[in-house]
Each structure stands twice: as C-alpha cells, then as structure tokens.
Design brief:
By secondary structure, this protein is mainly β. It is 6% helix and 34% strand. The termini are far apart.
Amino acid sequence: MAGRAERARSGRRVRTTPAQPDLPDELTSAWLPDADLIDGVIHAGLSVHDLDLSDREAAGAELDQCRYSNVNFGQVRLRRATFKDVHFERCDLANLRARESSIRRVLVTSSRMTGFTWITGSLNDVRFDGCRVDLGYFSGTKFSDVVFSDCRLDQANFGGADLTDVRFENCRLPGAQFSGASLAETTFSGCDLTGITGVTSLRGATIAGSDAIALAGVFAEALGIKVED
C-alpha cells in the first residue's frame, strides 16, 4: 500500500512518502453552524474556508475527507477526536490541544501550529509542510510514516513519543526535547539541531553529516566532556 514503509530483501526499511489524503473530487462547501465543532460531530466531505472555529471544546469529533483553508482552530480542545483524509491549508492550529486522538492520511501545509499539543495519540501517514510548530507538545504519541518538511519546531517536546521512521527535512529544531523518545530509523536531514536535549534517545537515528557537526557540543555535554577553545 502506498505510504507504508516496506522491507527490502536486505531487511532494511524502504523509505516511502506518507499516503496522501483520499479526498473526493467534489466537496460540499460548509459554514456555521454546519461546520461547527461540538461533541460527537461528524464532518464528512466538507470544504471549509475563511472560518473562525477557535476556542471550541468537543469530545469524539470526526473530520473525514475534508479540506480546511484559512480556518482558525486556535485554542480548540479535543478528546478522542479522529482526523482522517483531511487537508489543512494555511490554517491556524495554534494552541490546539488534543488527548487520545488520531490523525491518519492528513496533509498540513503552510499552517501556524505554535503550542500545538497532541498527547497520547497517534499520527499515521501525515505530512507537515512549511508549518510553524514551535513549542509543539507530542508526549506519549506514536508516529508512523510522518514527515516534517521545512518546519519550525523550536523547543518542541517529543518526550516519550515513538518517532520510529519519522523524517525531519530542512527543519529548525533548536532546543527540541527528545527525552525518553524512540527514534529507531528516524532521519534528520538539513536540520538545525542546536541545543536539543535527550540526546541519548537518538540511538538508531540517522543524522546528515552537516547536522551532526552542530551536535558535537551537545553530545560532549551529555557525556560530561569539557570542550576548550
């Protein structure tokens, strides 16, 4: 299936791209109240744009085969939510907080996600492209076939997350936290890793040579080595 990382004969995983959202050719334009976020709501096949949905609270919400353009989800609070086959474009997801929720086959492009919080949830076949995810919080979340491309992830917290096979491409990650995370076969390419913490959790990760140079001081500090000029 497209988007799954498969095993070659050598036993190594073959890198693939996350599966794209499966969106119908025609979507139904929706505004309030039909596009509102409330407990148990199911949004299917909707096209929503230029709408303010900030500061909502909902349990069990489902967004399925929808496209959101320039929609404000700031300060939204979700529990047991499901996002499947969704494209968020130029949306404001700052300080959205979700618990025990899942994201599957989702594309997020050019969106503001400062303080975005996804706790003890899951992300499968997800791509974040050109997003600002600084101060993001993903504690205890399981990632599968996820790519962060050209994103700002300053001081993001991945503590205790399963980041197996996640790819970070041309991202800024200064001060990011990885303590207790699993990074088996995770890849960092063209990234700023200055000042990251939890470096012992990087076991099994692949880091581009140019990125690794910036980590020399971080590794030295973690090992108690003093570096003199």
